[in-house]
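Onboarding guide, step 5: your first structure request.
Type a short instruction followed by the sequence, for example:

Predict the 3D structure of this protein.
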Amino acid sequence: MSWLTKCLELSPGLIVSLILYKFWPPADNTEALLNVLIGLTLSTITSTIGDSSRAKKQTATSQQLTQALLRTVSLDGASSPILRLFLRSGVAYLSVDRFPSVYIELMWNIQTSYDTTIVINEQDTSAGYNQQALEIQRAKIFSSGVRIRRIFVCRDEKDITRLMPFMKIHAQANIDVRYITKQKIKGTTVLKNWVSSTPSLDFSIIDDKYTLTTVLNNRSLKIEKFRLSSEDSELKRYKEFYAALASQSVKVSA
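The system replies with structure tokens like these:
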């Protein structure tokens, strides 16, 4: 608020005081004080009205800005399904219990590509949400041309034999399927260095924009939670790690 505006708001009280003094000169000090009081009261009233008017305008402006922001967020969310999921989840970490439903929604929201490694166990091959996700991925590839690549990280050669039927099912869904053993990773200097410098071997890269990684419990080494991130540095790291793994893995034919 400018000083000129404030002076204009106070001027009616001053003008009234001068008029009273000129046309009705006070007979004594009491009347003089009364004239001053009338002027001050009028100035206070006009100043309060001015402040109230400005407050209403500021409130209206604030509401307009808030509504504009909400519209922007809504529009961004509508055009970016992953952002919409971020907004609804409210956090970048997902609990193990919550993960299956969020994972299924992520599969529906894939737009262009999905590159993932999978450190699998027997329970994972029969988990209902994994089977459902596979059908969604098959539909995404067929209807939208989404590129899906998956690298199975197996313990050893016996694990490859056990998982081969499962891997072929994925390959038959037109997914680029590959496998690599942990022994091969440990025996390859480049991959060993990547593993030692990267928080998770079990990760996904979604639309070349987001990473989804598992967070293990330091004591039990079991999955504790999942982390969804859009950090550029993390995305770059995992994309390079995935490329290194793919270069050393074996392709599975349908």
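Each response can be followed by summary notes, for example: The longest strand covers residues 147-154.
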